[in-house]
Amino acid sequence: MNPRLSLMLAVSSLVLATPALAAEEEGLTPEKVAAIQRDEAAAQAKVNADFGNRKPSEMSNAERGQSIRDQQKESAKVMEKHGVSAKDYATFTARMTPEDNQRVANEAKRLDDKAKADKEAEAKKRKGDGEVHIQQGFSDADPVELESEEGAEPVVDVDSSLETAPTAPSAPVVEIGEAAGTPTKSGGRKSSKSSRRGK
């Protein structure tokens, strides 16, 4: 191989690799690309929802133009949030290797799993621990608390009419047994024959 040719190949490989290395030094990595893509997708979904998730062919020219402008604004906000210029981002993504693309895919999966776990944890936190605690009755020793504030002492309200009544409070009288006309063990009422035999 010609020494001049090998020198030109070495220099050209350094020149071509420099923008990618410079972009990584600026903070662009495949992992950051995955985060930017995720934020961009969320922003685009928001804009699409604002326009009723309609296809461009279903929109008027004015709506379509406004939709495009809104998408560009949201994309610029995402780039600004991550501190990357659109030009550097486009250059970096265009020069990514298959290994870089795999890193982006792995990071995107990790971010999705993390978001899903956070969502489930938030739902579980709002829902409680999922167990229903059952208390068998209540007493003065173990009162039931209907409303409480964190860190506050429990307050027990006692009905004053219960304290003054010497016996149980007046309640409607309920007849139990045959006098109330309830069925007997055989399932029917007593027959009139058995009452006649007694006479």
From TrEMBL:
The keyword Isomerase does not apply. Residues 142-152 have a biased composition (Acidic residues). It comes from the Bacteria. The keyword Signal applies. Keywords: Signal. Residues 66-85, 97-132 have a biased composition (Basic and acidic residues). Coiled coil: none annotated. Residues 187-199 have a biased composition (Basic residues). Residues 45-199 are annotated as: Disordered. Residues 1-22 form the signal peptide. This is DUF4168 domain-containing protein. It comes from Corallococcus carmarthensis. The lineage of its organism: Bacteria, Pseudomonadati, Myxococcota, Myxococcia, Myxococcales.
